[in-house]
Specification:
62% of the residues lie in helices and 0% in strands. The chain contains 24 helices and no strands.
């Protein structure tokens, strides 16, 4: 079957989109910094270009997040009390510096640990990140507490670079909407959770991969996505939506190139460790399989409310079935929507499905969704509704741990924590719902209101549909659909 050429269809406004002109929440908030973006204002310039503003903003927010961890940095991490929970400043980083042998100079995956965890339970690239930070800590002599502080600081500095890369790549993914990167930079959940664990490494690689896809570089996309998967498992899920969209647009060469690049990069990182330290390499996968129901998941609410227990093997099966059903629904949306959904929309939905059906939800998992939310639904109201739910969950889990770990039972009781979990699930489902609505009703999608198709979709942008089913097969062709939104209507919508 021949590959159709891209269509130009409806005229497009090529100017940079200023959120203060189209988003009522952004417009109201802009009064704090001088008001809306004026008609004669120039978005360029070296000092105040959108990307530079985004980069400086995320650095400032990251620094505020580090200040929020100050009580733990000074004393609460090292006293073994519930204070790190009551101050909501817990981090895995200093604890694992000792608990995973970095303080003793052990090499991840190769040297066996003592206790219940025989080897480091993180993917290979994350383990390398942790090891590099450990090497950088070597020049700092002193007691163990001082070395733990230095290890956290060095990791925080490296993670700040990852945060900047994430925000900047998100800002550059959609050429006309660089200000959407502020959704990432100003996300309160990013500031609060950035230094809990090492998730920002995979996040930065995934954001860079999305940028490469938007620039029609499928090989670079695949390589970066493979590296992201070597740091955290979830980025591999993005290949599913990409397969469906490339199938609908018949862009098999781009997808195959991306798939081979991802597989090659993942193998290049993992095979050496697999060959020389197979038991250590397997630990991450064994731990993920054998881990029981844990904090944050709706499975925990079920077991706590019923008083029953679900074995790890059983919850793995149930979670896979639910994830399979969710993916089937996403596949139906991808192939049956009257207009091909945007890549970022389906990417958000599949990662959200994985998070919601998983048997654990750590507070920092919200980071996985923040850049995708900025690309999929760049509306401040919906984004802040979701972020509010996530911040409340962030506070809820620490207060619950304070309640369960302190003798005086001060904190959030079980019922309150269950409400926090339900709030997190409801907030994520709300954002999923508006994204699905946008996919089914493209006229409600703010990214497409200027006649665009999928500006961050790379080779998918403007491509004709070739394989469709259901309503999509009976709908008008892409050119006819996009032509209904004219430049005049877009100009009216902007006022």
């Amino acid at each position: 079957m021949p590959i159709p050429e891209k269509t130009t269809s409806a005229p497009r406004d090529r100017s940079v989109v200023a959120p203060t002109r189209h988003d009522e929440v952004a417009a109201a908030a802009s009064e704090l910094v001088g008001g809306r973006f004026g008609r004669w204002a120039r978005p360029g310039g070296f000092a105040l270009s959108p990307v530079r503003v985004v980069a400086l903003t995320v650095i400032g927010m990251f620094a505020l997040g580090m200040v929020q961890k100050l009580p733990c940095y000074n004393w609460a991490w090292f006293r073994g009390t519930s204070s790190q929970y009551t101050h909501a400043c817990y981090s895995d980083i200093p604890h694992l510096f000792v608990g995973r042998g970095f303080a003793d100079g052990l090499v991840p995956y190769f040297d066996r640990l003592g206790g219940d965890m025989p080897y480091l339970e993180y993917p290979v690239l994350t383990g390398l990140f942790m090891q590099v930070a450990s090497w950088l800590t070597l020049p700092f002599d002193g007691d163990l507490m001082y070395r733990e502080q230095m290890y956290w600081l060095l990791n925080a500095a490296m993670l700040m670079v990852c945060a900047v890369v994430t925000a900047v790549c998100t800002a550059r993914t959609h050429r006309r909407r660089p200000w959407d990167g502020l959704l990432v930079a100003l996300a309160p959940a990013l500031a609060l959770t950035a230094t809990i664990n090492w998730d920002l490494l995979a996040l930065a690689l995934t954001a860079a991969a999305m940028l490469m896809w938007s620039r029609e570089r499928p090989l670079a996309f695949g390589v970066l996505l493979g590296l992201a998967t070597a740091a955290k498992l979830y980025p591999a899920l993005l290949l599913g939506p990409l397969l469906l969209l490339c199938w609908r647009a018949w862009r098999w060469r781009a997808f195959t190139t991306a798939l081979l690049g991802a597989a090659g990069a993942w193998l290049a990182v993992n095979v050496p460790v697999l060959l020389f330290a197979p038991e250590g390499w397997k630990q991450f996968y064994a731990f993920s399989r054998e881990r029981g129901i844990d904090f944050g998941s709706f499975w925990l609410v079920i077991t706590q409310r019923t008083g029953g227990q679900i074995e790890p093997a059983d919850v793995n099966t149930y979670a896979m079935l639910l994830m399979g059903l969710a993916c089937a629904g996403i596949a139906a949306l991808a192939l049956m929507a009257p207009r091909r959904p945007r890549f970022a929309q389906l990417a958000f939905l599949v990662i959200a499905a994985f998070i919601l059906t998983n048997k654990v939800y750590s507070p920092q998992y919200v980071l996985w969704l923040i850049p995708l939310a900025a690309l999929a639904r760049p509306r401040w109201r919906d984004f802040l509704v979701w972020q509010t739910c996530e911040v409340l969950y962030f506070l809820g889990i620490w207060l619950y741990l304070a309640y369960t770990s302190s003798g005086d039972k001060q904190g959030l009781p079980t019922e309150g924590y269950q409400f926090a979990i339900v709030l997190h699930v409801a907030g994520t489902l709300y954002l999923c719902a508006v994204i699905v609505r946008d996919a089914l009703r493209p006229d409600r999608d703010v990214v497409r209101r200027d006649g665009s198709d999928d500006p961050s979709g790379g080779v998918l942008d403007g491509a004709e549909d070739v394989f469709t089913v259901g309503e999509a097969a009976r709908a008008p062709r892409h050119a006819e659909r996009t032509a209904t939104w004219t430049r005049v209507e877009w100009g009216a919508a902007r006022e």
